[in-house]
Structures are given as C-alpha cells and as structure tokens.
Amino acid sequence: MKKHNFYAGPSILSPYTIKNTADAILDFANTGLSILEVSHRSKEFQAVIDEASDLVKELLEIPEGYHVLFLGGGASMQFCMVPYNLLNTKAAYLQTGTWATNAIKEARLFGEVDVVASSEDANFSYIPKGFTVPEDVDYFHYTSNNTIYGTEIRKDPDVKARLVCDMSSDIFSRPIDVAKYDVIYAGAQKNLAPAGVTIAIVREDALGKVSRAIPTMLDYRTHIKKGSMFNTPPVLPIFSALQTLRYYKELGGIKAIEKMDIQKAETLYEAIDASKMFTGTVTDPADRSIMNVCFVMTPEYKELEKDFVDFASTRGIVGIKGHRSVGGFRASLYNALPLESVNVLVDTMKEFEAKH
Predict the structure, then answer these.
(1) Under a CB-based contact definition with an 8 Å cutoff, are residues 203 and 183 in contact?
(2) CATH for 15-251?
(3) Is pLDDT of 120 > 90?
(4) Which of 280, 240, 244, 226 has its CA nearest to residue 171?
(5) Where in the chain is the domain with CATH 3.90.1150.10?
C-alpha cells in the first residue's frame, strides 16, 4: 500500500533525495566509499558543502554580505546562539507558539526580553496584530511558522531593529526578502533533509557587537571563518540537503514551489471548511499555515477522533494525529508531499463523514 506521509518532522523527503542518498550510502561520488565513512575534509565532500551553500544563496536570492552555515544542534541550539551573538541589553520577541516560547526562555539568560505580543491567551490559535517593535532593541525575533498550532506569518516584517527568524518549518516554501534579516535559521528536518543539520543564514556585519566573550563553538564567526568545518559537520544530512536543493531548482525554484504548496493547502482547507464533522483550530483564516494544517472534530463528533486516525491508516495515511497541545489532527504539507496525498486525505475525510 502506498503511504501518504503527513508527519510534522522528521518528515517526507522527495524520492529524488532518498534515492540519491541511498546510492551515496553504497558509493559516494565514485570513491568506492560510503558517504557514512568518507572524510569531511575530502575534496568530494567539500564539493558537496560548497554546492549546497551556493544553491541556498541562489534559491533564496541571498545578497552579498551573508554567509550560509551548516551547523549541528538543531534550531534549539540557535535559541541560545542568537542572543549569545546579538543580545547586548534588550531584545524583542513575538510569542506565537512552543518554539517561540523556548527561544524567549533562552534569550532571558543573556539580557532583557520584551515580549511585544503573544497569542498564548488563546492557545496560540492566532497571530497577534498591531504590535510595535521598539527601535532601541538589539533585535526582533519571531517564528514564521508554528508547527504545533498551525499558524504562519507569510510576509516579511518591516521593522527598524535587526531582524531574526526561526524558519524551521517553512523555509524554501515562499520567497523571502533576505536583505531584511540579520539571522535566519532552520532545522532541516521539515523541508530539506534528515534530522541532524541546521541552516543559519547570517549577515556578517551583525556580528561582533556584543561585549561578552562567546564560547568558540557558539560564535557564528568561528563557523564563518572555517566554512562550516570548525568541527566535523553532519555529513549525511548535508549531502541529503544538497539533493533536495537540486530538486527544488529542477522544480523551478521557490516561486514554483510556493504555488504548489498553496494549492495543496487550499485543497485541504476547503474540505475542512465544507465539512460538518471537521473544523480548523486557527481562528483567522489569514493566519493559517500552508505547511501544517491543524483541525479537530466538532463537539458532536469528538469521540470519533481516534476512529478517524485508525480509518485513515487503512488508506495509507500516516502522521496525522495532532500534537497533544492541540489534539485532533495535523496534516503537514511540506514541499515533498504530492498533491495526490492531499487528495487521498480529503477523500478519506469525506468517506468517513459519510459513514457517520
């Protein structure tokens, strides 16, 4: 039975990425060695990391003055690396979910944090509007997509402070005006690669402004100077990331990918909105994520949620159980997920509803 993978992360990868990674596990770049055992200092792997960096810059149209880094530690490590490198006295944060909350917690170890707005009062079911970012902060940090709660900020903010964003679950799904940002970071396990590598896009002139000493491993300048090779990088995930980046270029780039992602999201949201059994959890349709669609059953059908998950599994649908913070269901529509899988989910929802 064909599987339709809606897991939130680690998540679906393209067949192109999986096949090329599997081939390289057996023989990497005709070396007779597996990618699992090759030296990260070899010329063959240096070519991988160079091409991956170049493709990130090309696909996101990154201007001069920025560096693309491939780091370990996940986005959670960036929660402390960002304030370590950028926070002198005060930073502003937008609180829109679990990961933003965790980032705020880490930043408070380094200085004052001004939470300019929060949607915690409604279980993060909306994106706050109308807030002001003070001009005197060292930077403003926000999380563009909230994997658990299904909200997304799809427009680059206009602020006068330095701008930092956690784009872990929607990077490469829409065009970004990178010039507005000083740091963009993203764990790769949503839209790029297996878990284990994090991309950081860092503006060079944002660094070197804090008065504290920074541990070598946590200083962005260390990794810039060494070309992401200060320590042994996560070789396999970087190789897989390169395959995905090549695949994205073949698809026509970020604008083409965005068009496909919007079509998938609209297909599912339209089915939810037309249903008497299912309802979305995000209160304002303008805040709905196109990456993570969160929905529950209406009160009169609530006791059937487990039955639906079980029924969906008979159709090859996996990974739709919602996070415990929200309940219900979550369908993650990352770039590698085909429209066919969304259509199968929609048909399964309609079939289940017709039976009840």
Answers:
(1) yes
(2) 3.40.640.10
(3) yes
(4) 244
(5) 253-355
In the chain, CATH 3.40.640.10 covers: 15-251
C-alpha distance across the termini of the chain, in Å = 25
Q: Which residues are catalytic?
A: 99, 166, 190
HSE at residue 122, side-chain half, CA atoms within 13 A, is 13
* Packing angle of the helix pair 305-313, 339-355 (nearest 10 deg): 130
Which amino acid appears at position 261 of this protein?
D
- The neighbour count for residue 23, using CB atoms within 10 Å, is 12
Q: Could you confirm whether domain 253-355 is CATH 3.90.1150.10?
A: yes
What tens digit of pLDDT does each residue of 326-344 get? Answer: 999 999 999 999 999 999 9
* pLDDT tens profile 154-168: 999 999 999 999 999
3-state helix, strand, coil split of the chain in percent (to 5) is: 40, 15, 40
The amino acid at residue 323 is: H
Percentage of the chain beyond pLDDT 70 is: 100
Q: Which of 176, 119, 107 minimizes the C-alpha distance to 148?
A: 119
Return all residues near 127 (Cβ < 8 A) that are at least 6 apart.
Answer: 96, 119, 151, 152, 153, 284, 287
pTM: 0.97
